[in-house]
Design a protein that fits this description.
elongated; alpha+beta; about 15% strand; 4-stranded antiparallel sheet; 2 domains; about 60% helix
């Protein structure tokens, strides 16, 4: 059998560089789209919170106007009603979590050659789970060390099976969110 090599070494190098550039462009476009989607979600959550706050404020104003019109309603009842509504508004604002800070910090802690496939955060139980793919054991260990340094993550759980694989490392890391995440509001 005869092998014909019609490309010069320079052309082979150029083709290899073009392939690498194409991969980098695809990753960049994917990251840009991901950031755009996340930004859209943040804007939507911000808008929904503002709408709820505006509705509560309108409700407070309507209640105030109605209570002024009713001469037999005591001042104490008005104050109690306003306090309840302000408590509800305060509860909504306290439950708001600035996810952009969390995601930005998490993204900065991911080393090169690690791809995250899932970031699942449960704010009611204050837990999270991250799955992904690492190209080397060293990068996976570096990622775990980076996560341990984040102020809003504690009790990191990474099974040993994450490190037992030979070439590519499918991993799952879970842990708890600390109150530091909720205090950034």
């Amino acid at each position: 059998m005869l092998d014909l090599n019609l490309l010069s070494p320079e052309n082979k190098i150029n083709i290899s560089r073009l392939n690498n550039f194409s991969i980098i462009v695809k990753i960049g476009v994917s990251l840009t789209l991901l950031c755009a989607v996340i930004g859209g979600l943040f804007f939507l959550s911000y808008w929904l919170l503002n709408e709820n706050l505006n509705q509560i404020n309108a409700s407070i104003e309507n209640e105030r106007l109605n209570t002024i019109k009713q001469s037999n309603v005591s001042i104490d009842e008005i104050i109690k009603s306003l306090n309840v509504q302000l408590g509800q508004a305060d509860a909504i604002q306290k439950n708001y979590i600035q996810w952009s800070t969390f995601l930005f910090t998490l993204a900065n802690s991911v080393p090169d050659n690690i791809s995250l496939t899932l970031v699942d955060v449960n704010s009611s139980t204050k837990t999270f789970r991250i799955t992904g793919l690492a190209d080397s054991r060293e990068n996976l260990l570096l990622f775990q060390d980076n996560l341990n340094t984040l102020p809003f993550i504690s009790d990191l759980i990474s099974p040993l099976s994450n490190l037992a694989q030979q070439k590519t490392f499918n991993f799952e890391i879970s842990g708890k969110l600390t109150d530091a995440l909720y205090e950034t509001n």
